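User: Sequence in, structure out. Go.
Assistant: Echoing your sequence, followed by the structure tokens.
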Amino acid sequence: MPDDSQPAFQSSPAEADFSIGADWTDDETTALTFLGTCTLHGARSPALVGVALSAHQQLLRATMSARPKSPAQIAAAGEAWFSIGWMLRGQETLAQQPDLAIMAASAYEHALALNCRKAECCDNLGNLYHRHLREPQRAEECYRRAMELRPQSSCPHIGLADLYQGPLDQPERAEPHYLRAIELDATYWYPHRQLGYLYQRQLHRYAAAEKHYRRVLELSPSNAQSHVGLGQVYHYHLQQPTLAEGCYLAAITLQPHDACALRMLGLLCKDYLQQPLRAEECYRKAIAADPANPRPHTALGYLRESQGRWAEAAAAYQQSLACDDAYAPALRGLAWVALLSRGAVEETRRLYDRAHAAEPKAGTLNVFVYLAAEVWAANWPVAQYLWNEWVKGLQAHEDWMLWQNRERVCALLRQAHAAGLLPAFAAVLPSDRPCWRPFVQAVDAFTTHRAEGALPSEPQAGAIFDLLHKH
């Protein structure tokens, strides 16, 4: 996936004041590039990287002249610049040298203008436009030209698939390119991992996601990210919490400070393993590992909210917003705390507006907040309509949201019960949907005053029944 940590560049390669050419020989070009790149590879600290960068620039500029001798020389210079930009990713020096990617792209463009036929030139230029300069359409052109120059290379297929999965937001077009990359190189784990992510998050084909994550782990057993991805498939979609736990623990064994794996294990402990103390421990470890990440703060807030510890929940959500003031899950969390603890309808509506502006695509979760505000405002005709639409609109790939938000759903149903409207709200629950079945069974038992011992043995129905009785 694209690396969002890269700096944004304000000018395009065409605007860069950079022209290269040389009267050197091809051997001299190769030696120059090799020397500069080796110097850079040897740098392991910001100070040494800065020294290597300076030396490499001096080597290049010492041989520049007004006219290039050959496209190969231009491409070699471009490769050197690209090597600098690539090796300095994430280094403090890169933030101080934002023109490096522009210079690299300029060099590659010069080479292509002189009919350079190296596929690597097009592929690397595509990577620059894709991952550094944020020009996806130009990146797409480069990857396609690289495919023409070297049809048997998997690299441009992977680059193009990442582009479709990411900035171009055309996931259905990504799949065939990942599959083609696997055909061309069956031993490379990366396209399998990306396919796993694609099937899990965008195409909602969970058996296929499981297959490709497992293939990654056959090829690269220490790939912690794929352990987490496979765990999420088991956790949210295949309803196999024991397998999910094993995957998260494997990731944590490989990377003990992996904030994502720790947070996911915490969510599993809260929602499926009934281990709230362990969940809290996981969240706190995730926060310690990545204190600027809003996600574990929000997860801790929801744990506190589910326990009725409103002040602590609000504090955790506020800490999440201190990390990212537009983080929609934390805004929704604050909205729910405002409703559940104080019945603050107007505050909830303001927070809904902020959450919707921050994450407009999260329709299901945002509408749920809007619906709840109407319920607490006792605007029952609107609330009933919104509830009916929300229940009908919940997509199959969103089933996991229902169980994760069960405390909130039950709080809303308790409000409807207090107004004498629970039968009307319950009438639209689809008993044929597995995600809704525990709610249907629990509400039926609740409304018929059935004794707890007469409840269905299904554990989730019992948990919902208990939440409906909660005060």
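User: And one key feature?
Assistant: Residues 389-471 form one domain.
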